[in-house]
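For this section, I looked closely at the sequence of one protein beside the tokens encoding its backbone, which the following lines show:
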Amino acid sequence: MALRFGPDVSTAETDYGTVLLDQRSGNYWELNPTGTLVVKTLLEGGEEAAAVDALVTEFDIDRTRAEQDVTALVQELRKSGLAT
């Protein structure tokens, strides 16, 4: 399922990934380059499988690990209320 950030979430790309700001709480989240690739893929309308494919293609990671990482990141973003 595609990912969307809530209206109170600001993003900024850095040399090291992406920073997310939850304006409701003032909490910052930092995504490394792999997390940034996953989020970009999902925000552009891609499914989780597309994010897994992107990780496997871009980084030296096996598919099983990529699937676990994508699932964990998406769950955490949704659980935190940053994304739907």
About this structure: The CA atoms of residues 30 and 62 lie 23 Å apart. The mean pLDDT is 94.
